[in-house]
Amino acid sequence: MTLTQLTHLQTTHTLEAHVGNTPLLRLERTAVACALPATVELYAKAEWFNPSGSVKDRAALWIMQTAEEEGKLWPGMTLFDSTSGNMGIAYAMLGIPRGYKIKLVLPDSASPERIAILRQYGVDLVFSDGKQGSSGALRLARQMAQADPSLFYANQYDNMANWLAYYHTMAPEIWQQTHGRITHFVTGLGSAGTFMGTTLWLKQEDPAVQCISIQPATAHEGIKGMKHMATAVKPAIYDETAADENVTITRTEAEEMAQILARQEGLLVGPSAAAAVAATVNVARTLDRGVLVTVLPDNGLKYLSQM
Question: Which of 7, 161, 175, 288 has its CA 20 to 30 A from that of 113?
């Protein structure tokens, strides 16, 4: 066996080698249940197929690799950030084997399942006021990072490597999986990395693709993983002019869609995933034909205690 072959073998047997290349599922039964015409095709990226179970593996890996290449992060350092859960789990799963300690600010309203997972990884957790959501965690993290320069502050909301992860991975996957037929990309806003990176790539490939962002209808909807940008701390990587259209969704619509997906498709999804499909169906109802793609950031297993 040559050195090249050995290196390839070692690489393919790591968790990070399996980040990305997630399935694109056609939600045909959901389309029928929602009375969409047969000429409107509904698809969703099943991001829980990433090793840690969420879309955040893409950004976490890209952020770490970029920081390593820039000489800002090396084994023995503490990677620090705020998170609502999924990004923190991705940091832990991918960062611990690379030799990093993980410290996170997490809203105390995070699901017990996500807190338990992070504790099992040995993550140093600091809890923020859950009533302030992810914005409160972000504000506290900024204060803590400023007070302790020994931390590597990953700062997912302002880090260009976040959206670049989706530009280089998710967008080309969607293009290939739809054979370039995609007409609408519809997804929620959290850190905004998924929307921004995928949108920029798709628009370069085909400016006619409609890229639509989703936000909760109000600041009080409580859809975990989604930001109401008007009242949240706005991520620096987010450009509100990038969307062709911004649509809103309610928690009730998301909960109803979660049941449809479970009972029609056999898909148990998280709150933001259900909200994304509900909003995409609303867009689809305005069309005579089209190929719509949305993103299912994770499945529902980390939310069962709160469903």
Answer: 161
DSSP letter assigned to residue 190: S
- Cα→Cα distances 104→49, 108, 171, 195, 283, Å: 24, 12, 29, 24, 36
- What is the Cα–Cα distance from 208 to 210, expressed in whole angstroms? 6
Q: Is the pTM of this model over 0.85?
A: yes
Rg from Cα positions in the chain: 19
| Beta carbons of 291 and 42 less than 8 angstroms apart | no
Q: In the 8-state DSSP scheme, what is residue 250?
A: -
Q: Which helix (H) or strand (E) holds 281?
A: helix 271-284
Give the N- to C-terminal CA distance of the chain in Å, as an integer: 51
pLDDT, tens digit only, all 307 positions of the chain: 343 443 444 467 889 999 999 999 999 999 999 999 999 999 999 999 999 999 999 999 999 999 999 999 999 999 999 998 999 999 999 999 999 999 999 999 998 999 999 999 999 999 999 989 899 999 999 999 999 999 999 999 999 999 999 999 999 999 999 999 999 999 999 999 999 999 999 999 999 999 999 999 999 888 988 999 999 999 999 999 999 999 999 999 999 999 999 999 999 999 999 999 999 999 999 999 999 999 999 999 999 887 7
Alpha-carbon distances, residue 56 vs 22, 49, 98, 196, 282 (angstroms) = 13, 11, 17, 14, 26
Query: Start-end ranges of CATH 3.40.50.1100 in the chain?
Result: 20-51+163-306, 56-160
- Name the residue among 138, 149, 100 with its Cα closest to residue 121: 100
Tokens of 59: 């950004």
CATH for 56-160 is: 3.40.50.1100
Q: How many other CB atoms are there within 10 angstroms of residue 206's CB atom? A: 12
CATH topology of domain 20-51+163-306: Rossmann fold (3.40.50)
Residue 41 β-bridge partners: 291
d(CA 181, CA 26): 14
